[in-house]
Each structure stands twice: as C-alpha cells, then as structure tokens.
Amino acid sequence: MKRIYLDHAATTAVDREVVQAMIPYFTETFGNASSLHSFGRDARYALGAARQTVADALGAETDEIFFTSGGTESDNLALKGVEKGHIITSSIEHPAILNTCRYLETHGCDVTYLPVDSSGLVDPGNIESAIRNDTKIISVMHANNEIGTIQPIAEIGTIARDNGVLFHTDAVQSFGKTETDLQKMNIDLLSLSSHKIYGPKGVGALYVREGTEICPLMHGGGHESGLRSGTENVAGIVGFAKAVSLAIKRFESDTRHLTNLRELLIDGVMDSIDDVHLNGHPTKRLPNNANLRFDFVEGEAMLLHLDIRGIAVSTGSACSSTSKDPSHVLLAMGLAPENIHGSIRFTLGRENTSEEIEYVLGVLPEIVGKLRAISPLVSKGSSMGSRSSGR
Amino acid sequence: MIGIAIEYTEKVMDHFMNPRNIGEIPDADGVGTIGNQVCGDMTNVYIKVTDGRISDIKFKTFGCGAAIATASMATELALGKTLQEALAITRDAVADALDGLPEAKLHCSNLAADALHAAIKEYLAKN
C-alpha cells in the first residue's frame, strides 16, 4: 500500500545527500574533535566547516553559533542561560518554551504569556505594554508548529531592541520555509532544529548574538566555547549543516512547490467537503501547513481512518494527547473546544507530489462522510444524517 | 500535538471501521446522552424495550476510535438482553469484549456503558 507522509512538522526523512555527507564521520573521520592528533584535527575541521555553513546561512559569525542536541535544548538554553528576570512570551509557544517558562516561574521569574488573535497572531502592541523594568527577554516563535501562522518578528525585535530587552525566537519550524534575517528582525537568540529540515534527529543550534551574556546548561569539558559541554556529535552536526545548505539552496523551489501543494489540498478540501475551516492566518502562514477543522467529527477518528489508508497526519484533538487536553494553540486562538477536536494538521514536504494530494482528496470526503453519518452533532435535516423517517 | 501511539486491537479496529447499530430511534423508549462536544466525546444511545428486553438499540458517537468502537460493542452486547442484564454490562466488559483498550483510552469505554445505562434508566423512570 502506498504510504503518504503529511506530518513534516513532526519530523522529516533525512535527505539522501545528508546521509551521504554524514557517513564518513561514523567510521573514517570519527575522532574526538578535542583531540590534538590528526584524528581530532580532521573532526575539528569538519566541525568548523559545519559551523561556517550554519553561520553563513543565518548571516551570523561562526562564534555566534552553538550546536546543541536540538530545538528543545536550544530553547532551554536561551531562556535558562540568560539573566533571570521577567519573561514575555506567547501562549502558543512550543512546550519546550512554555514548560521552560513554567519551570522558571517556580524559580523566581515572572512570566507574561501574551494572548493571540483568532488567526494566532501576537499583537506587538501587547508586547510593548507588557515590558517592565525587570523584563530580560522576549521569546516569540517565528512560525507556529500547529497552525503555521508567521509572527511579526521584525516588529517584535524592534520593540525589544528599543527597550533594551533580549529577543529570542524559536525558528525550528520557520527556517528554510520563510525568510529569516537576524539583522532586520533584531534577533538576539534563535533556535534551530535539524530534523525539521531533512537532517538527522538529535542535533540543533542556538544563535547567540555577540555580546549577549549567557550561561551554560551543560557543564563539563568546556565545548562550544564553554556554552555547551559534551563531545560533539560531528556526524550529526555535519548532517545538520548539509541540511541547512540544502534548505538555503532549495528555498525558492521548496516554497513554490509546498505552496502549490498546500493550495491544492486546501482548495480541494473546501470544494469537496462542507463545514470545513482553515485554522490559522490565511496568508501569513508557512507554505507547507494546512491545519483544517471539520465540523461534527473528531480528529483522532479521522487520523485513524487516514492512517489505515497509509496517510500520516496529526490532530489537535484531546483524544490524541497524553494529557487529554486539546491543543493549547487552538484554545489560545479562541476556538471552542468542540471545534478543536475536529482539527487535522497536514504538513507537506519536499517529496510530496500532487498525485499524493489528489489521492488524499479522493479519500477524505468519504472518511468525513462516514464519521458524520455516525455523529450526534450533525443537525437534523442535513444530508449527512442517516435518519430514517416514519419509524 | 504530543500524542500517544495508539495500539488498537483487531476487534477495536473492526468495530471502528464497521460500527454496528448506527442511527437514531425517533420514538425510542429510552435515550442516554453522555459526554459533550466540549470534552471531545459524546455518545447517544437509543433503545426500544419489548417485554423487558432491549428489542432495538442504536447509537451515535462524536469521538475517537475507542469511543466509536466501545459504543458499537456496547450496543451489540446489549441487544436482545433483559434490562437487568444490560444494566450489568460494565465498562470493563465492553473493553474485554474488544480484547482490551490502551490504558489511555479506557475512559472512552466509560462513555458507551454509561450512555447505555442512562437510556435504560430513562426507560425505567418513565415506566
């Protein structure tokens, strides 16, 4: 059975070129990059080259790039590593930010969680009003992983700069899919993740603008200029850097391809199924994100039907989460809980084709129809009901 | 969107893909509604009672795979039973009949059994 992967916001397959780039670093150039001999030197050289690649991609200096184990660690390092004080963030951040904030709240920090509007946008004006004398850092994600909404990062960065507050952005979902300009956007700290851009899992980076005071989370041998101890995962870092350079190289063609497929999917769904709505901003959204809510049916049931047909997606429904809470992002947008449960997130990737989208469009109406036929929420008189009259 | 990997049994998948007793009974003798849209699961059970037995039973569910499967199984177990027998159908009986449910999904089976019992109790209250 053909399997169609539409969950790229969760993770991506490692690009074959990335795999090829990594292979020598397992068995040939395996040295510890801190060793003084030739094995170490070779590994160190590869590490330096990788750092240069990532720095160039961001328009940063090499000594502003620190490799970590991924987006979560980078987010933790950004918030826990800088001077403690009042933090301003949004209510739709990834749990790596939100739960770090909650932890910091129990350790002497005040946190302001800003609301978002119905399309998931943060209002820069709210940020300005929230700034206090003791505000140390603002952290707002560049683009949201669930709904794809892209935040007004440049405006937020300017407000931060004007008020002498650090600005961190989690660019895990946005990098490679929308423009990131450290200078124009006045970004001081930025989190990246390899496995969202066709690189290996377990690697990421934190950009730290020169002059920013930051302490390590990981103490030890003093790697990454003392900011992140631990023998470097050279193979992973090489792979990450290769994924970054491919993302830059393919940016135009990727965004064009993804946008086309996204529109094909959204238009096709809207044309063939009633009572469907797009979650998130209609235009300020990632090119690959189609988060759709289907009235009267539940997300996990839809996901299961799609899964049986080999199609992989994710859902914001409570029934799909370990906490039994519905998506905090959709809640923050003001969606009623009953609407949140019927949401499916389709996130497209480089390797998806229009044939795959057509296939999905072919099965989705039947799935939704089947679930609506058994739903107590479909109103009487609707053609979707399976009511028999005169019984 | 951090999720649980759902491992459903074959029986659960069968009842999910091919639910039994779907529908409504407009002139039902008893109707039980448990849960609500806000929670993300809601099940309605409709029964017809003849000579103290459930002669017809239908359900509708808004909910996940487990919610649908358990409602289907509960109605299958209850059809033809006496009211006392049907009242004795527990959540665990429904889950067992499906060869088990993942721990995180056990609460879904509550809905099905509770809606069935609510329908019977409504009938008993009227009669």
| Helix vs. strand class of chain B | alpha+beta
| Main sheet characteristics of chain B | 3 strands, antiparallel
Question: In which order are the strands of the major sheet of chain A placed?
Answer: 2-8-7-6-5-3-4
Q: Helix fraction of chain B?
A: 40-55%
Q: What is the structural class of chain A?
A: alpha/beta
Helix-strand sequence of chain B? HEEEHHHH
Structural shape of chain B: globular
Describe this structure in words.
The complex is a heterodimer of chains A (391) and B (127). Chain A is built from 13 helices and 13 strands. With 391 residues, chain A is α/β, with parallel strands linked by helices. In chain A, strands 2-8-7-6-5-3-4 form a seven-stranded mixed β-sheet, with helices on both faces. The longest helix of chain A has 22 residues. The radius of gyration of chain A is 22 Å and the shape is globular. The C terminus of chain A is likely disordered. By secondary structure, chain B is α+β, with helices and mostly antiparallel strands. A three-stranded antiparallel β-sheet of chain B has the order 1-2-3. In chain B, a hairpin with a 2-residue loop joins strand 2 and strand 3. In chain B, helix 4 crosses helix 5. At the A-B interface, helix 10, strand 12 and helix 12 of A face helix 1, strand 2, strand 3 and helix 2 of B.
